[in-house]
Amino acid sequence: MNYPGFSQEVQTKPTALFSAVFWDRFTSKNVTYAPWGNYDDKNATWITLQVGFSTPSQPFAYYGKSPIRFFETIFSEDENQEGPYKQTTREFAEFSFDKDFGITKELFLIFLKQQNQSKFRLTSLPLAQESFEYGSFLCYSQCKEPLYLAYGKQKQALGVGKYVKFKQDEK
């Protein structure tokens, strides 16, 4: 829909709906993102949500372009300010995805800690209902080498950081 005086189209349908979880045990953060993707604007809207390791987060909408960027707030001691702590925000993860015009992506994001790095790597699994037929399931790999899986008569190679879908055997 276009409004007179505005040069951009107002998008009412989200680009993507996400849920997220941290892969590493006991990792939990208040994750902040800009739902419109306008991170550098002074008047950007920011939303903070809790993401943990044991339960997927509440679904959250994103209306911007790929990639979505995630930030965390860090508190450090600073004796130069009036208060005892200095608050800074830093980007700690970014996720790129393909945009399907007019279709809202539904993805489950997994935050993966990287050794000797402050940024997390993100990977995703599709959540759209049409991605899962009744009786199917996905296997996801975090191994550093390919895996070979079998379910019933089905056999599949599972690449590093990839996923494969298995379907229930028809009887």
Question: How would you explain this protein's 3D organization?
Answer:
The chain has 171 residues and is mostly beta strands. 0% of the residues lie in helices and 45% in strands. It is globular. The N and C termini lie far apart (50 Å).
| Percentage of residues in strands | over 45%
Question: What is the rounded distance between the termini?
Answer: 50 Å
Radius of gyration: 20 Å
H/E order of the elements? EEEEEEEEEEEE
Helix count from the secondary structure assignment: 0
Q: How does the major sheet shape up?
A: 4 strands, mixed
Total strand segments? 12
Shape, please? globular
Helix percentage: under 10%
List strands and helices in order, with pairings.
Elements: E1 16-22, E2 29-33, E3 47-51, E4 60-62, E5 68-77, E6 85-95, E7 105-113, E8 120-126, E9 136-140, E10 147-151, E11 154-158, E12 163-167
Parallel strand pairs: 1-7
Antiparallel strand pairs: 1-4, 2-3, 5-6, 7-8, 9-12, 10-11
